[in-house]
């Protein structure tokens, strides 16, 4: 069976989700924490300077902007966030057309994303995709690490039960961080409007589509 795996941020939906989620969720569960948004911006700059990894950044961001809330409560907020974010940002239509083509061909559809599972599932449900591989949150931290790069490839391999290259696999992403999985897909698809990124992706042998 063909397996079609899609990234979320800037692949299915046009804009990144995590910082918008932090701001939206803070308004819902702890409005006073919105004054801490400049601190979050500084933390992101620290990550870009190489002071800590993405798992540490996202863990700190959750605690800074939201404090402590149950995963069930975050799932509730995530449902409303997904609705609002899609309305504001929109889906990337050529990729959604690819999803529907895969569905019509009987492919097994999966969203594999570094976004947190508690809201990534809400986006996937709106596309009638039941399988989600995403960053987990246990209320205090990120068990297994951020679902990104090699970690995402390993999570997909675990879900498939073997190396992705052994399957009839399409993988669609906008990020070169997903190279470990793109390189193992039979049909790697890269989403970009950048001429420089297009050239780099095509040099790697990946098919490119514009958002």
TrEMBL record:
Signal peptide: none annotated. Keywords: Membrane, Transmembrane, Transmembrane helix. InterPro entries: HAD-like_sf (IPR036412), HAD_sf (IPR023214). This is HAD-IB family phosphatase. The chain crosses the membrane at residues 30-49. It comes from Qipengyuania polymorpha.
